Amino acid sequence: RAAGAAALVGVVLLPAVALYRLSTLNGAGRLTLWPTLAEKAMAQVQDEDLFVELDADSNSIAIIVKHIAGNMRSRWTDFLTTDGEKPTRDRDSEFEAPPRNRAELMTVWQNAWSVLYAALEPLSDADLSRTVAIRGEAHSVIQAIHRQLAHYAYHIGQIVYLARHFAAPHTTTRAITERIRRRLARAVTFV
User: Fold this and answer.
1) Average pLDDT over residues 79-99
2) What is residue 118's predicted lDDT score, i.e. its pLDDT?
3) Confidence of residue 129 (pLDDT cuts 50, 70, 90)
4) What span, in angstroms and rounded, lies between the C-alpha atoms of 67 and 92?
5) Which residues contact 163 (CB under 8 A, 6 or more apart)?
6) Percent of the chain with pLDDT strictly greater than 70
7) Overall average pLDDT of the 85-105 stretch
8) Helix (H, G, I), strand (E, B), or coil: what is residue 169?
9) How far is CA 24 from each of CA 30, 57, 177, 178, 189, rounded to the nearest angstrom?
């Protein structure tokens, strides 16, 4: 599968494709770096702080998790055959009424990532050359994967930032640890 993915993008293997390639070679391998980073950050936060908004224009960690989960369910359910923006998705509601406690929040989080992994696992080389729609806009499968991983990385950065704020000065979470930085550097390869 990796060789087919590389041929599709030419000389440089894009980061999303590299992450995809590694995920197919290793279960969900490298893709687990992002949720693990957020989970480690959230684990250092007191339960009540998961639901705190810093100001009226900010989202809590719980709201960010709910939004990521709603996005994942929409984008990755029937990924190859239906528009990634499902008519059943109510995006605005993702920013209201978060799960009631840490256990519910983590269930929402883990279930959402399971949807993503289930969508990526069966992709073949032929699937990588297909076109999918997100909000009616055509994307190659590779573009769609890249778009979504960038979106999740952005929000996971917010989660880590908020967790550091609430857990300080006792936090052990760094934005990207040296070990993760090395793994990501290895994931971006040249053909």
Assistant:
1) 95
2) 94
3) confident
4) 9
5) 41, 42, 44, 45, 61, 171, 173
6) 72
7) 95
8) coil
9) 9, 39, 24, 24, 16
Radius of gyration from C-alpha coordinates of the chain:
17
Q: Where are the alpha helices (DSSP H) in the chain?
A: 2-9, 15-25, 33-43, 61-76, 102-120, 125-128, 141-167, 178-187
Tens of pLDDT, residues 11-55: 333 445 544 454 443 444 467 788 999 999 999 999 999 999 999
Burial (0-12, 13-18, 19+ Cβ within 10 Å), 57: exposed
Q: Is 174 exposed, middle or buried (0-12, 13-18, 19+ CB in 10 A)?
A: middle
Which amino acid does the sequence have at 82?
A: T
Residue 105 has pLDDT above 50, yes or no: yes
- First-to-last alpha carbon distance for the chain, in angstroms, is 14
Handedness of CA 111, 160, 50, 172 (dihedral sign): positive
The owner of tokens 């705190």 is 52
Q: Which two tokens stand for residue 180?
A: 């993760």
